[in-house]
Structure formats: structure tokens, C-alpha cells
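Chain A, query sequence.
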Amino acid sequence: MLPMKTGLPARALRLVPYLTPEEVQQLCAACRGRHRDRDALLILLLFQTGLRISEALGLTVGQLSRQPGALEVMGKGGKLRLVACPYSLVHRLKACAFDRGLGPADRLFPVGRKRAWQIIRGAAERAGLGKRVYPHLLRHSDAIERLRQTGNPRALQLHLGHASPLMTMRYLSTITAEEALRINQAVRFED
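Chain A, predicted structure.
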């Protein structure tokens, strides 16, 4: 059988790897050492907001208080965007900043990209996930979880800051028929 021509780039057709919410919890629980709370918070931030690692590492205390339930981040290409962030996570981030005596201009995670990779890979090894885990995998995991819960690719595109809908559409391959049915059953019509 010949492969079907879709007109989409090959990378848009690849299955996107991801972690389940349970695997993310295992990752957080596997954080060790003096900075285990901060490290677990970084993992949760990446998973629950879908931020790129550079966006998360650049996050300052002042960005937490601008809009409730959202973070204002400087994304790729210097584009400013609002990203949904659970209130409970914002509260934990603020508490962490207060405990460490950080000011509005201070970064919440004063580590570099290399150290962030080490934190996440180390936690993955200790958690025994059996998957290649890296910071961007948490972004994929957030995207898939949001799509599964909402079924709204356009909202996801804006949340992730994708310029092209094609980048977002690749997550659709992870939705099962049962999840699609559940999403569609949630649609309400007037009688």
C-alpha cells in the first residue's frame, strides 16, 4: 500500500511523546536533595503551563501577580503571551518566592538550561519511568492533557504560542476515539 499524501510536513505526522499526569507526579516525588521542593515546582510549572524551558527559567516573581490564573511570559521571538496557570500553582510559586526572600525582579528558578535538564533527567532515572524524559516533553504532556480535556486546538495553539496551527495539530494524533466521544458528548444544544 502506498503512503497517503497529506501535504503536511513529516514532523507534523509523527506521534508526539508525552508523560501522563501520574508519571509527572512520580517525577516530582523523585526529586531529591536540598532543592527538591524547587525542582519539583519547576517540573510542575513545565507540565501545568506548557512553558518552554527558557520561558520557565526566565520567570520572575513580578510575573506572578499581574493577572490571577495566568502568567505573562515573553515567548519565542520576543512575543508576549498569557499562559493559563492553575491558582494552586501560582500560590505555591508565590510561597516559594516569599520563603526565599525574592523580590519582583528576581527569577524563581535561578538555574541554567543545563542544570534544568540534569534535574529532570535525574528525577526520571530515580522514578524509573523507562522513557527518555527532557524539559520539552513536559510541554508536550501539558498540550496533550489540555487537548484531551477541552478538545479545542485553537485555544491550545494560543496557550502554547504556536504561530502555525500545524504545530498544534500534531497533538490530535494522541486523542482516542473514546476521548473524542467524551468531548463531543459535553457539547450542549438547546431543545
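The CA atoms of residues 79 and 124 lie 31 Å apart. Residues 135-150 form the longest helix (16 residues).
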